[in-house]
């Protein structure tokens, strides 16, 4: 109920500010589970896609999004996003288990396989959690290409700005293999990233975005701690 209230209020704002062009929305099933695997250009990606699709989408989002920019923090909490501690393998698996439960209940789950925002607009190597989910649950994977979202809330900015964005949703991918097999997880993840790249047109980089940032001395903006008021 809270999600629908937030969506009712947020969708018109997203349309007015972003002038979105959404194509391929018909690929999202009206009922039943599906995984939306999207590229990652902006902190608001995990908000914009759920705001612009008719069905409830639960996204995975890093912990910093819940305690950093107050705009993203507010939407992440009210939108029911799943917080992810990227430094803890145990916490990451707990998030995947929670996502699997959502899919088993027939819901939609969104994930950014890159694990962090692209530092330069290119598409980086995907992490294997998305393949684990797809192979474990059997849920179809829909590749999603976001374009222009980094202009809405540029890195370091606290206030969103008007910018035209595009969202392209591809046809469901057929995946096969064993979720417990590392080679299958890697193969399926690479196939998903290739599908995203075909939709987005981004240059592909066969390394992890986090590793690229670390090797080039690029750090994520520090999360600004906000004062809790309870709840």
Automatic annotation (TrEMBL):
Region described as Disordered: 211-231
Cellular component annotations (GO), alphabetically ordered: plasma membrane
UniProt keyword Transferase present: yes
SMART domains named among the record's database cross-references: PlsC
Origin organism lineage: Bacteria, Bacillati, Actinomycetota, Actinomycetes, Streptosporangiales
GO molecular function terms listed in the Swiss-Prot or TrEMBL record: 1-acylglycerol-3-phosphate O-acyltransferase activity
Residue ranges annotated for the Phospholipid/glycerol acyltransferase domain, each copy included: 34-149
The name this protein goes by in its record: 1-acyl-sn-glycerol-3-phosphate acyltransferase
Domain of life (superkingdom): Bacteria
GO biological process, one term: phosphatidic acid biosynthetic process
Keywords assigned: Acyltransferase, Transferase
């Amino acid at each position: 109920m809270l999600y629908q209230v937030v969506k009712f209020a947020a969708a018109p704002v997203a349309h007015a500010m972003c002038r979105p062009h959404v194509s391929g929305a018909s690929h999202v099933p009206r009922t039943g589970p599906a995984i939306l695997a999207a590229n990652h250009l902006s902190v608001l990606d995990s908000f914009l896609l759920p705001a612009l699709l008719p069905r409830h989408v639960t996204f995975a989002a890093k912990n910093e999004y819940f305690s950093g920019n107050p705009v993203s923090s507010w939407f992440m909490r009210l939108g029911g996003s799943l917080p992810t501690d990227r430094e803890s393998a145990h916490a990451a698996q707990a998030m995947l288990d929670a996502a699997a439960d959502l899919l088993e209940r027939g819901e939609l789950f969104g994930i950014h396989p890159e694990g962090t925002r692209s530092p330069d607009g290119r598409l980086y190597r995907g992490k294997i959690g998305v393949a684990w989910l797809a192979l474990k649950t059997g849920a179809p994977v829909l590749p999603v290409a976001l374009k222009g979202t980094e202009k809405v809330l540029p890195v370091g900015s606290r206030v969103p700005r008007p910018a035209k964005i595009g969202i392209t949703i591809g046809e469901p991918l057929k995946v096969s293999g064993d979720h417990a097999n590392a080679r299958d997880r890697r193969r399926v993840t690479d196939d998903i990233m290739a599908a995203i790249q075909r939709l987005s047109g981004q240059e592909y980089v066969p390394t992890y975005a986090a590793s690229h940032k670390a090797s080039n001395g690029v750090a994520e903006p520090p999360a600004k701690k906000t004062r809790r008021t309870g709840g």
